[in-house]
Amino acid sequence: MLEGVNRGKKKTGKKLQAEVKFITGYRAGACFRWFVFLCETKGRKLTELNSEYQILTAGLKDLNSLRGLEKLCFPIDAWPFLDMIGALTLPNIVRFKMEDDGQLIGFIAGDVRKMQRVGWIATVAVHPDYRRRGLAEKLLELCEDAMGMPRIKLTVRASNEAAIMLYRRNGYLQVGRWRNYYKGGEDGVVMEKTLL
């Protein structure tokens, strides 16, 4: 499993660089290739993150930290316990966590549906103390590419204007609305992005 991807290190006006550290194991090679693909082939500047932050593959050992982050970010809609276990263990789920000095500050999970040729962003969570720093956007970019699907979809509360704006800035368009989707009867806005 990919154990660490350090981001950061600006070199006075030169191209941003990244340090990649990983421990060989299940999916390490695939995760490493995704990272190299993002940084070199697509030219995305994932290395702009502060060097204190790490993006890692999430696993079952992150269950307790994820439960806390979900409750903090989504007090009404936090995932049930079994859904979190599924997100951290099922083979068709792409999952990344972001840490600051070992503390979980961000998480994203994407459901790869190969038969439908679509990926679904299941959740994006960033600790409130770390918002407005571009971290959700970085997680979103990484997850989109890791899923490798031509279309990416997600659902967001209709009242979550900040998230809707984030998704629009990143190429998502509203393609539907699910009535009474969330607890409390709020509608879910379905958004989709087509990748080239």
Based on helices, strands and strand pairing, what is the structural class? alpha+beta
Largest sheet: 7 strands, mixed
In total, how many beta strands? 9
- Total helical elements: 5
Low-confidence stretches: 1-50
Give the overall pLDDT as a whole number.
79
Bin the strand percentage: 25-35%
Broad shape: globular
The end-to-end distance, rounded to whole angstroms, is: 28 Å
Helix content: 25-40%
Helix-strand pattern: EEHEHHEEEHEHEE
Write out the strand line-up for the largest beta sheet, numbering strands in chain order. Answer: 3-4-5-6-7-9-8
C-alpha Rg (nearest Å): 16 Å
Topology:
Layout: E1 4-6, E2 19-21, H1 28-41, E3 53-57, H2 63-73, H3 81-89, E4 93-100, E5 103-113, E6 118-126, H4 135-147, E7 151-157, H5 161-169, E8 173-178, E9 188-194
Parallel strand pairs: 6-7
Antiparallel strand pairs: 1-2, 3-4, 4-5, 5-6, 7-9, 8-9
General description of the model:
- With about 200 residues, the chain is α+β, with helices and mostly antiparallel strands.
- It is about 30% helix and about 30% strand.
- It has helices at about 30-40, 65-75, 80-90, 135-145, 160-170; strands at about 5, 20, 55, 95-100, 105-115, 120-125, 150-155, 175-180, 190-195.
- The strands form 2 sheets. It has a 7-stranded mixed beta sheet with strand order 3-4-5-6-7-9-8, with helices on both faces. A two-stranded antiparallel sheet has the order 1-2.
- It starts with a strand and ends with a strand.
- The model is unreliable at about 1-50 (pLDDT under 50).
